[in-house]
Amino acid sequence: MKTILIIAVLLVLTYAAITAWSKHKVSASLPQLVANGAIILDVRTEKEFSGAHIPGAVNISLGRIREDYRLLDSSKTYITCCSHGLRSVKVADILKEKGFKHVFNGGAWTDLQEALSVKQH
User: Fold this and answer.
1) 99 found inside a domain
2) Which CATH number fits the domain that encloses residue 84?
3) Contact 107, 85 (CB under 8 A)
4) Within a domain: 68
5) Which residue range forms the structural domain that includes residue 45?
6) pLDDT tens column, 33-87
């Protein structure tokens, strides 16, 4: 029983380390993607977006993405963001299901904004 518990803990720690490394690797590449023309797709509601957003971001909410994805160019690169990072993951998955090849989750828009401003200065 103790051996199984140790193995389970090691697996969880390994998974957490790989996930953190992958997220850092993607996060570090986001400013370069934007510099190369990636479009920031803010998937919060119109009301949330109108309150504050990253300049130049396009707003299509999670609630509208299944219809409005047709307004997007599937050959372009998109970075999704929202308030906490949950909706942006869902929209990234939906776009990939619709045939978009270059979609990245940017997480919370405020974190993405910070990452972009730090890397641009």
Assistant:
1) yes
2) 3.40.250.10
3) yes
4) yes
5) 28-120
6) 999 999 999 999 999 999 999 999 999 999 999 999 999 999 999 999 999 999 9
